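A.,

Following up on our hallway conversation. Structure tokens first:
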């Protein structure tokens, strides 16, 4: 990849990740599935499970419709204390590009603020992504969220 092309791709994927994080952090969860291809894979797992090649995740969805169902469940069925999230995404690394597919990884940190103002680190880890070029933009073909800790909060129902 030429330096200019690499820089442009980096800026595009960084902007994508910023929009993705903003969607979740602004509680616009109904838009969250739109970041994914129809036949996507979204999985949340731990680094330990990934290293042991355990394929199932704490959250597993293999279509955009499954992601939509997750949002409907969050809005209509789940009961939880109001809270806010703040995603910090960094250390973007671009990987192989084959045609319209691009591999990438990035580190993330999610801070959760509860209704009473208490803040805590909710999750930290890495995104292992495969992006698909759609026209001038990108969509997620695959996002595997790899958590650093195997200690999982019960409110992991929210997307990361």
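Then the amino acids I'd put at each of the 160 positions:
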């Amino acid at each position: 990849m030429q330096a200019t092309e690499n820089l442009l791709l980096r800026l595009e994927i960084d902007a994508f990740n910023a929009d993705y994080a903003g969607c979740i952090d602004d509680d616009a969860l109904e838009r969250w599935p739109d970041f994914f291809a129809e036949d996507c894979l979204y999985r949340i797992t731990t680094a330990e499970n990934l290293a042991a090649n355990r394929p199932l995740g704490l959250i597993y969805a293999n279509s955009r419709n499954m992601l939509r169902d997750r949002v409907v469940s969050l809005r209509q069925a789940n009961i939880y204390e109001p809270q806010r999230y703040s995603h910090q995404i960094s250390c973007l690394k671009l990987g192989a590009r084959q045609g319209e597919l691009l591999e990438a990884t990035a580190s993330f940190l999610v801070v959760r603020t509860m209704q009473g103002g208490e803040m805590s680190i909710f999750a930290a880890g890495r995104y292992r992504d495969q992006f698909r070029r759609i026209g001038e933009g990108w969509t997620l073909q695959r996002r595997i969220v790899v958590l650093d800790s195997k200690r999982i909060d019960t409110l992991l129902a929210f997307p990361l």
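The mean pLDDT is 92. Curious whether your intuition agrees with the design.

B.
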